Amino acid sequence: MTAPLPRTPAEHVERVLCVLAHPDDVDFGSAGTVATWTAAGTEVVYCIVTDGDAGGFDETPREQMPVLRRAEQQAAAATVGVSDVRFLGYPDGRLELTLDLRRDISRVIRQVRPQRVLTSSPERFWDRIGASHPDHMTVGEATLRAVYPDARNPFAFPELLADEGLDAWTVSEVWLGASPRADHPLDVTDVLDRKLAALRCHVTQVSHNPDLEQFVTAWMGQTATRFGLPEGRLAEAFHVVHTM
């Protein structure tokens, strides 16, 4: 008889890999959570699949946008204690669920060897359609396929082992953001300033919105209320998937 899967996330892990589609995705949905983890001594690495070259709200020349957005994400990462930010360079808005994408995410998993992976939900969120950008869902599904079975299977993408010396690695937990099945809130009230600082780094994406901080704070307050946290608290919420 196999042992039952855990019902709650691990209290502490050594390494986390966050795999998101665009610069700023991790900060809107998870920067408070990341700040909490790094403050507790967890090493966090970002893997951003695109450079966000289709984003922005002004006349910035398109050829400049990838450089700007990479720099913004690196600055935002630093505000929450993350220094290792990796970009895969896929085209923004044109992601498809391909074997190449699965292999490239599997490569980073094997390099980082995280116990926990944070990514976007592959399910469409009908109550909040803005959360379900096609790139978000594609990255979520590709990451789940990389977690299981690709990264843990030494015979999947054998070139990763034969040519690059990357041994198979099993991820224990996956945290899915913007999920209609969210079941785990994390109280991030005490790191609100760091989350907002991270968001403000994304100048090309947020400078047009003077109500950004009020919107984000209200959103997290609603999340906290939905999960029964005390009045005045703020939360980010995830669907936690156990893989072992």
From TrEMBL:
Pfam families: PIG-L (PF02585)
GO process terms (BP): glycoside metabolic process
Gene3D superfamilies assigned to the protein according to its UniProt record, in alphabetical order: LmbE-like
Keyword Transmembrane helix (UniProt): no
Source organism, top-level taxon: Bacteria
SUPFAM superfamilies given in the database record: LmbE-like (SSF102588)
Segments traversing the membrane: none
GO molecular function, one term: hydrolase activity, acting on carbon-nitrogen (but not peptide) bonds, in linear amides
Keyword annotations: Zinc
Name of protein: N-acetylglucosaminyl deacetylase, LmbE family
Originating organism: Blastococcus tunisiensis
